[in-house]
Amino acid sequence: MFNDPKNSPWGKVQTCDALCPGVFLVSTASHGGTLVSKEISAMLSPAARKCGFKQAGYLCFEEDCQESVVLRELLDKKLWSVPDRIRDKAAFEENINNSIREYNPDYWRARQAGLEKAPARQTVPAHSAER
């Protein structure tokens, strides 16, 4: 359904890895980033979508500063997992989080606020015989 992109905002695509259907990690001769198809971008949070820019049917996230946002979203939504080749997965995720806090603090605040608002799992008390 999704074809690998041939061009990106950063030039002709030299390498392309699909992170999940419709999400492509691309590199060019000089730069790269992550391209998210229009259909899949609807699954991203509004705060995440604000970090990208639209071009040629994709929501684009530049590799140096914005790409961590889409990686965090994919991890949170369980659409992608840290590759097995990464030995220290916790450190990898912390690097993603640090990048977001530095370059996209508005997104980080929105994400954290959303996590805090998520309903906590409540334990239901055992049915009491007292009435």
Description:
The protein is α+β, with helices and mostly antiparallel strands and 131 residues long. It has one domain. It is 37% helix and 22% strand. It contains five helices and seven strands. It has a five-stranded antiparallel beta sheet. A two-stranded antiparallel sheet has the order 1-2. Helix 4 crosses helix 5 (105-117). It is globular and about 40 Å long. The model is unreliable at 122-131 (pLDDT under 50).
Task: Describe what is shown at a glance.
Helices cover 37% and strands 22% of the residues. With 131 residues, it is α+β, with helices and mostly antiparallel strands.
* Distance linking N and C termini: 60 Å
Strand residues, percent: 15-25%
How many DSSP E strands? Answer: 7
Count of DSSP H/I helices: 5
Structural class given helices, strands, pairing? alpha+beta
